[in-house]
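Subject: Sanity check before I submit

Could someone independently write out the structure tokens for this chain? I want to compare against mine line by line before I put it in a report. The sequence has 153 residues.
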Amino acid sequence: MTSADVAVTGGRAQGDPGKRAVGAAGTATLAAGPDDGSPLRIVAVGRMVPKKGFDVLVEAVAELTARGLELELVIAGEDGPDAASVRRLVAERCPDAVQFTGPLSQCELLALYRGADVFALACRVDADGDRDGIPNVMVEAMAAGLPVVSTAV
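---
Independent answer below. Compare away.
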């Protein structure tokens, strides 16, 4: 993570005692995790293509786990041209923190969102100029009441 440090806090979300509150700031402060001792659960959804930035997200997870934050990243979606390189990166940097589910039905996605603490989207502009607008999965996660962390793209 080169442009900013991240602060992740592990309090309870207002109005939902089963959810943790997650916040970001310009300083590197890491909380011990949720009150119940389970790792912070991050969800990302999409086809593994360059513009989705799954490699960036995996690098961020590797950095956060190296700093002592207990978390797990669940990546749901179809394999694509970046699948092999993303899986290789996970194996090298953070094999215990990332799992892949493959494609899920809408009902399964809703259950995944509801069991997560935060949705992460690391989109970027691809080499050929391809980019996401407002990805449906981000809107779905927000509709499910999940906090969303995303790049500016």
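---
OP: Matches mine. For the report I'm noting this point. The beta strands are 11-12, 20-21, 40-45, 71-76, 98-102, 118-121, 148-150.
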